[in-house]
Amino acid sequence: MTTGVWLIGARGNVATTAMIGARAIAREATVTDGMVTERAPLTDLDLPAVGSLVFGGHDIQAGSVVETAERLHERNGVPDRDTLDAVRDDLATIDDRIVTGTARNCGRTVAELTDDAAFDDETLSLREIVERIRADYAAFQENEDLDRVVVVNVASAEPMPADPDQYDSVGAIEAGLDADDPLPASALYAYAAIDDGHPFVNFTPNAANALGGIRELADRENVPHMGRDGKTGETLLKSALAPMFAGRNLRVLSWEGHNILGNRDGEVLEDDANKAGKLQSKGGVLDEILEYDTHNRVRIDYTPALGDWKTAWDDIRFQGFLGTQMKLQFTWEGSDSALAAPLVLDLVRLLAHADEQGEGGLQPHLASFFKDPLGVDEHDLSRQFDRLYEYADQHRNTSTANEETENTP
Amino acid sequence: MTTGVWLIGARGNVATTAMIGARAIAREATVTDGMVTERAPLTDLDLPAVGSLVFGGHDIQAGSVVETAERLHERNGVPDRDTLDAVRDDLATIDDRIVTGTARNCGRTVAELTDDAAFDDETLSLREIVERIRADYAAFQENEDLDRVVVVNVASAEPMPADPDQYDSVGAIEAGLDADDPLPASALYAYAAIDDGHPFVNFTPNAANALGGIRELADRENVPHMGRDGKTGETLLKSALAPMFAGRNLRVLSWEGHNILGNRDGEVLEDDANKAGKLQSKGGVLDEILEYDTHNRVRIDYTPALGDWKTAWDDIRFQGFLGTQMKLQFTWEGSDSALAAPLVLDLVRLLAHADEQGEGGLQPHLASFFKDPLGVDEHDLSRQFDRLYEYADQHRNTSTANEETENTP
Amino acid sequence: MTTGVWLIGARGNVATTAMIGARAIAREATVTDGMVTERAPLTDLDLPAVGSLVFGGHDIQAGSVVETAERLHERNGVPDRDTLDAVRDDLATIDDRIVTGTARNCGRTVAELTDDAAFDDETLSLREIVERIRADYAAFQENEDLDRVVVVNVASAEPMPADPDQYDSVGAIEAGLDADDPLPASALYAYAAIDDGHPFVNFTPNAANALGGIRELADRENVPHMGRDGKTGETLLKSALAPMFAGRNLRVLSWEGHNILGNRDGEVLEDDANKAGKLQSKGGVLDEILEYDTHNRVRIDYTPALGDWKTAWDDIRFQGFLGTQMKLQFTWEGSDSALAAPLVLDLVRLLAHADEQGEGGLQPHLASFFKDPLGVDEHDLSRQFDRLYEYADQHRNTSTANEETENTP
Amino acid sequence: MTTGVWLIGARGNVATTAMIGARAIAREATVTDGMVTERAPLTDLDLPAVGSLVFGGHDIQAGSVVETAERLHERNGVPDRDTLDAVRDDLATIDDRIVTGTARNCGRTVAELTDDAAFDDETLSLREIVERIRADYAAFQENEDLDRVVVVNVASAEPMPADPDQYDSVGAIEAGLDADDPLPASALYAYAAIDDGHPFVNFTPNAANALGGIRELADRENVPHMGRDGKTGETLLKSALAPMFAGRNLRVLSWEGHNILGNRDGEVLEDDANKAGKLQSKGGVLDEILEYDTHNRVRIDYTPALGDWKTAWDDIRFQGFLGTQMKLQFTWEGSDSALAAPLVLDLVRLLAHADEQGEGGLQPHLASFFKDPLGVDEHDLSRQFDRLYEYADQHRNTSTANEETENTP
Hints:
The structure is a homotetramer of 409-residue chains. The first copy, chain A, has 409 residues and is of the alpha/beta class. Chain A folds into 2 domains: 3-230 and 338-394, NAD(P)-binding Rossmann-like Domain (Rossmann fold, 3-Layer(aba) Sandwich); 234-334, 2-Layer Sandwich (Dihydrodipicolinate Reductase, domain 2). Chain A has 13 helices and 11 strands. Chain A has helices at residues 13-26, 65-76, 81-95, 108-113, 126-143, 170-178, 185-195, 212-221, 234-247, 264-269, 272-290, 336-357, 381-394, and strands at 3-8, 54-59, 98-100, 148-153, 200-202, 224-227, 251-261, 295-302, 309-319, 325-335, 361-362. A 7-stranded parallel beta sheet of chain A has the order 3-2-1-4-5-6-11, sandwiched between helices. In chain A, strand 5 (200-202), helix 8 (212-221) and strand 6 (224-227) form a beta-alpha-beta unit. In chain A, helix 1 crosses helix 2 (65-76) and helix 5 (126-143) crosses helix 7. The longest helix of chain A has 22 residues, at 336-357. The first copy, chain A, is globular, with a radius of gyration of 21 Å. Chain A starts with a strand and ends in a 15-residue tail after the last helix. At the A-B interface, helix 1, helix 9, strand 10, helix 12 and helix 13 of A face helix 1, helix 9, strand 10, helix 12 and helix 13 of B. Chains A, B, C, D: One of its GO terms (molecular function) is inositol-3-phosphate synthase activity.
């Protein structure tokens, strides 16, 4: 069984880092730290080997994965030189499988960042774009002789479509396609993937499979999918810390979060339209865990000096016994891509597993990976992990060996 | 059913704050924030009403609870003036029930802080001290006409006894008492309590019921007890955050903790002998959750300007994907007593409940309250909470009402 | 010589705290920490005694100084109960001298916060308002038999007038008054004060004496005045830290500042129009000291839980040897009023001194007190202090004693 | 005029980074950020060009500068690969000029870290060691045909000699040499340098030229020298921030500093004997600037994960108006070597200048470079900078051009 990974935003930082890591693991040139599926009890599952994954994808900018990797090395130090050297040829091979994608309805800022030459689809109808995407998926599967293609959206933040609830059924989505509604690119990629039976991961805050119609389609086609918005930093900490305040009956009076980041994500989020969706997907964690509304603000600012690194500073005031006001402040400093990339690989492996098991629809046991886990109300990180571990226990691999298939970039 | 609360260290900050809070709640002069038992699902249990608890205790310093309360108000602002005024008379009533305790084998620093007049027991044998403690417990129960007395140790940190494993049986403890071994005060208080059937809480890092012999005694006498070392600050955060690193396979390279505090606890912990036990009870959390040894250092320094407030600064370096080193830093600023006091009341209520149910021995469902939960290996805070919630579900109060008994200080 | 202090915004936090402090110092009920003029070498100057200052002022909200003081005590703990009790009667005396002011052209948010009853001047012309202000100043001086009245603006932030450069001469200001231009309240207060010979301090970011016409008027009338925007927190730190980066040739790549505060200032600054002036007065420090433009952003957010306390978090990235990127982060937590109030008293005393010496116009030796010191390019805090110390050396009091006049609220 | 630089600890991180930087600047492969002498007004001085400096030195460990540079690149990312490649050959050339030094009386920890083969001088008398050092200096000067050799001590921290005041005269030093007193290595290097007329910089907290006898010798021989302990991190910040508290009459109640670092300096400082000197040199800044004693503690801990990076966390509590307690906390994260190395080059250039001018003895205008500037009481950073700028103004280069001599490693 060979698993293909089709990345939307394949020349971006997260996709590139995921591919560097997968190939470096294949070549035993790096560690597997940061990958949830490389730790017990997930190691008990019969998952496709990291080294066997075959990569391809869409992007809307010119350039190459090798160039992105070089830039990541120079500006952020991740990957280091030795790792980059070890996988450079593999990345070049992958580059040949990356094709031009669509930025339809992704907002002005994304349009400006988009390479002119690449962005030639303004005359196409939504249906034509969908057909092209569908054909790209199919060509990848056929050319690389893949048993399965998992599609992962790791593109930049889009503006939310107005009134997303209007797309709550397959029929509404399809009517929207026919009418050339302002459906954003993420919805087109998701529709094409799921309609063709490709498992789908929405690692962004974008609409995609958060639309009811796409979810209905996945149920109907029995295709596994999950999202949305990878939980890699501030929200991860919220989901670990808020249960502490709740469990101790310490009343959170305010939770101020200030994020500064210097990569293209940061640049796109300078546009308020694109930021809105992001803030929305980050917002629900506290309220759900605390069970009351609190003063909860998230600032996201673009600071070029940080490169691909992200700093979150959070200031939390809480009231305890005798009305005493106390506080917690934290600073989280991480490489955005190094945090996100291993989760992309985890999700690919786990969705491939679900697909192999015939488990279509949303995958609630994957809630711990997402800021806004579709279909799941539980935001307490430890309980989300427990659901994942229960899944691992239920599907513990009983076969003799976790045989690895051929090691291909 | 009337429940008495006997506090070892009754004129200290934690005890005083607990009594202020209980009486202020009785008089509806404050909130119940910070109390775990005042939040669902614990509110479903049939617990003694906070306002009905009757307080007394031992101390080794002169002064009064009212004086401690005044000092806490002036130096720390907790309690505020209105709350203090509301309970001042109640505290004075309680003061009459506080008797001189023992500081036997508590180390040089505690001895120096001890009021000379009070500290008159150097000529007594351990057996004589135990008898006096026993008599004090009994007099309290009789004078106040109490159905049950829960004994809570909230005294300062003692040095650990040398080779505590030698006291692993009731026989060994009793031989030690007979031989006037250097058993510390906490062990004497615990022995007297449990041998007489009083539920016992060890909120300190001291030996007390951490000794195997005391635990054996509690099992034999079917007396509920739990400890040790209330989890109120840095360790609470470790137990909330470490599962996040573990679950995400992010390798913790170092966890440096620096605590500064300005109260008597801080002063006593300037003595390395007393600090050793504290550091030991804080040490196990990380190793257990992470399942590997990491560079883990805890500094505790005395900074008088902080008064009863405590600041913990923690610096955590971790390794993620592609060997990327990242970090988390946090600053926690809390009033030590305001964090600890409500937990004391919670534990009294929950031990009274266990005693009423005939559930003797250690109480693993109370693990979330302690840095070093006796008999429990689980340090993940969310899972510790889950055990408490399961207990609440199993014992859900089916009686018509959670009637409050008479409201007495 | 008796000095009167007329406060614009007299029932606000800063004014109230200044009056509490002055009266508590008069009654020897507090320390003089935080007052620059109570430290060598400023103590060598012949300044009016703090205890001799007589207070009055304008405000646009109903209420009383006593009520503000009570609220500050309850919500922020500053002042404490004993200090408040010591000065309550003095504050009540002062309350009788506070009259209704104007909020003309202060923006929508200030208007909404303004007490309806008080805000009755919409039908008045600017000239009529100025006359009323002038009369209020004069009545205060006469009623209290004052040798001198120093006027201090400590009101909320206003929107800047459009194109402030149009008011660069006395003639232009007066034409604006005649034409009922949208000149903001601060300009009216400043014009009335300086035209009548009252020394004037602009502790706010508002236009007031930052307008060229007001400065020309002060030069013509030889009235000492200074501003603008008291330097109490983040900007104070910038002026202390930026010279370190500059002197060490460490290139500042970005300086991100995030301020959260919970008082009325914070509420008013939620309005972007009012915030603009504030951000402008904060902006110049870095560029002037560093001598190059850097990525420099200041966020100000309203977080009610903080009350009168302010937290500034700053993240500074800088480049050193071999292009190494390093960083400094700081968190500053102060009571806004406790930081500002002593400087108000310092400035009153120093302007009274200048007036006594016949030193009219801007007072560059007072640059250290302001975020945007009018007429001064030097932002290095140590050098600003040095100018103040030189002034003290030049005017060292040679008279026998620094006699205090009568001690009156 | 060719200037040689003789580094004690030449294979250490600071020395290696200084040499990498100097050679990279020579080859125009890096920026000059972090160098004080590369910024106005220091650029007005007629200083030896950075690219013309010729390096050699002593060390007590085997290995090579190239190996240190490789390790710094791999573990800390400073220098980056391109810079390292640009200077690798130059470093190899320098390696040939590095000879075995002495670790006499440097404490047990340094001895353990010392390479056995290199450490062969236990049988030598102090006088024999001094002669060997002297010969090494002379050979370097002759072999490289240098007009001047500046000796810079950048070795690890030593224990202070007992009762250093006993060495307050040249006679006492020489008697100590004759008697084989436990004089530490730093004193031997300094004695040999100054007695032979080589300008000397003590960048460490070690005794060296802090001993009165060495200072007397430098005055007698008219040799310029300065020290001690390069001011690169926490103390730099103290000297920038403490004047702010002092000038504003904000009373510092406590200043807690916690430093964690992962390089060999950190390892050596785990030894309390070696740490004592370090803490002493850091201690004086606050007391001198504040003019009163405050609670001032500095912790230094070894955290291997940090490599050559250092994190300082400082917590400062201060009292302001109305006795209000407020606080400042900062976190400083820097590459120790990247902060120190440019200052080493600055000091070499400035001492060479002083020597050329015939200005012997201590150099108070260099106070800003040191934690404990010998012979200078001024610790206010801005005022220290002002003394340096005054020196630059006085010696402004009037010659036609600042001609660079030949560019040699």
